[in-house]
Design brief:
It is a single chain. The chain contains 14 helices and two strands; from the N terminus they run H-E-E-H-H-H-H-H-H-H-H-H-H-H-H-H. By secondary structure, it is mainly alpha-helical. It has a single domain, classed as Orthogonal Bundle (MetI-like fold). Strands 1-2 form a two-stranded antiparallel ribbon. Strand 1 and strand 2 form a beta hairpin. Helix 2 packs across helix 14, helix 9 runs antiparallel to helix 10 and helix 11 runs antiparallel to helix 14. The protein starts with a helix and ends in an 8-residue tail after the last helix.
Amino acid sequence: MLLLTSPALLVLGLALLIPILLLLVQSFVVSLGYGQLQYSFTLSNYAEALKDPVNRSIAIRTFSIAAVTASACIILGYPASFFITFRLRRAKNLALFLVVVSLFTSYLVRLYAWYTVLGRDGLINTALKTLHLIDRPISFLLFSKWAVLIAFVNVFLPFTILILASSMQSIPADLLENSRDLGASAVQSFTKVVLPLTTPGLVAAFAYTFVLTSGDYITPALLGGKQSTTLASIVRDQFVTFGNQPGGAALSFLMVLVFAAVYVAISQTRRYKGV
């Protein structure tokens, strides 16, 4: 068994664990600026990252957008997953295939496509002007937190649907029919049967979307503008602009701690067994 898993463990160790450990060590050294390091132990990088009021306000904005995005993806994706799994009998595989096909388009292409929808001369402004509902283009659609939120939901909703649909595959189709035969209403069948059994999928989908949106740099940079700066942008500036690798590493690991705390918190919902 160990022989079979050793290639995967080797890849994980070389590509993931070793860089993470090196970054962790770097977060405790002293930065002399412009990439110069002094290898002496210090906690000042973490202290400065926590004390900076700008970092705190940007962190609140970052994690708020991530939480709203994850919640929106679950609210939109759960009914779609339920319909695909329990209502589409013969066309279920086709529907899942179409969800997967939506991921074939490049991530950057989908982001740039939102320029043609939300821009000053985009689809929405053009339609509103054609209907004589506005006299001048609406400028707040693009380069705002709303544009970032819409793009995030567009990108991560297919993943949420696939995760939730996968968690529903293990629920026998006749289980719902049996619950109805025993006198349970549609709401009771959902709350006592479907929801408890899909809680792990809900946790996985929320955590997946929350972590990736919190650490996303490209989407806020392209669609958010200066008012939608996120922690990923701050980390990038620490590494690239200021050459402060220890400061960027410390901020990165503080984000990891937040991710772990959020995952532990939402994992407690696995204890839900229905009402």
